[in-house]
Amino acid sequence: EQKNWTHVRKLMGWDRYDTPQAVEAMNDLYRHELRLWLNLFQPSAKLLKKVRVGSKLRRRYDVPRTPLDRLVASEGNDSDYLTSRNNLLHRREELDPFALSRQIEAKLQRVYALANVRQSPRVSSNDKPRRVTF
Predict the structure, then answer these.
(1) How far is it, in rounded angstroms, from Cα 35 to Cα 7?
(2) Are 15 and 108 in contact (CB under 8 A)?
(3) Alpha-carbon distance 104 to 98, whole Å?
(4) 7: which residues sit within 8 A by CB, 6+ positions away?
């Protein structure tokens, strides 16, 4: 919910995607390339605390890091955690971020082409707004 602007609206905009083909194209993008890009390569600044100074709100952020880097820095030593962490680190090493970016861009162009851009209905000069009386 907190990442709707950076993870959804910045990419998809405010267009309407209501066809099954558009939904499937978006799900494919999020399930594969975009998920990897956001979690392995895209740093984000995590909000640490908010302090009210008079009428203003001062926010303090952590150093921008990728979600994978935050996972590596966290403390965990059970076998599932270590296996997952090592698999993700290996995955990041073998991926080319530039090729991944090109794949994302190609899929985004397909999604944009499937947008259902609504036009406002035309109002002719003969159509007068109806008055509602009570």
Answers:
(1) 10
(2) no
(3) 10
(4) 38
Q: What is the pLDDT along the chain (134 residues), one digit of tens a residue?
A: 456 666 777 778 777 888 888 889 999 999 999 999 999 999 988 899 999 999 999 999 999 999 999 999 888 788 888 999 999 999 999 999 999 999 999 999 998 888 875 555 555 555 555 554 44
Nearest to 114 by CA among 17, 49, 6, 13: 17
Name the token pair of 103.
């794949």
> Phi and psi at residue 59, in whole multiples of 5°?
-105, 140
Residue the block writes with tokens 């952020």: 61
Note the pTM of the prediction, 2 decimals: 0.71
Distance CA 118, CA 30 (A): 24
Residue 71 to residue 134: CA distance in whole angstroms: 63
The 10 Å Cβ neighbour count of residue 36 is 20
Other CB atoms within a 10 A radius of the CB of residue 48 amount to 9
**Neighbour-count burial of 70, counting CB atoms closer than 10 A to its CB (0-12 exposed, 13-18 middle, 19+ buried):** middle
